[in-house]
Amino acid sequence: MVSEPFMAWGVILGGGLSGAGDTKSVMTRVALSLWLVRIPLSYLFVVILGFGAVWVWWSMNFSQFLQAFLITKRYLHGKWLQPIH
After folding, report:
1. Which of 2, 15, 37, 70 is such that its CA lies 20 to 30 A from the CA of 26?
2. pTM of the predicted protein model
3. Closest Cα to residue 65, out of 31, 36, 23, 33?
4. Helices 23-32 and 4-19, axial angle in degrees (round to 10)
């Protein structure tokens, strides 16, 4: 429940940017939040620190928040509005 609003915001805004032709930036931000945040944090919390499976969920929440933040930042910057040459 904690990450649902952020997940929805990221999916909706990411879909809008993808529909506007800015698919590469959305893919990059989603991949970064997964591969550089969610997976390493899950490994750190569970395997190295031994905190348990609940921390995988917290890692997912954090990566969802970061993903929504990065996609929102891209949207507000407005670079996606420029035509592709």
Report:
1. 2
2. 0.85
3. 33
4. 150
Count Cα neighbours of 35 within 13 Å in the Cβ-side half-sphere. 6
Taking the CA atoms of residue 22, residue 28, residue 31 and residue 36 in that order, the dihedral angle to the nearest 10 degrees is: -150
Tell me the residue type at 22. Answer: D
In contact, 56 and 46? CB cutoff 8 Å: yes
- Cα distance between residue 58 and residue 2, in whole Å: 9
Considering just the CA atoms, what is the radius of gyration of the chain in Å?
15
Q: What is the pLDDT of residues 54-69, one digit of tens each?
A: 999 999 999 999 999 9
Give the tokens for residue 14.
């990411």
**Sign of the alpha-carbon torsion through 52, 55, 60, 61:** positive
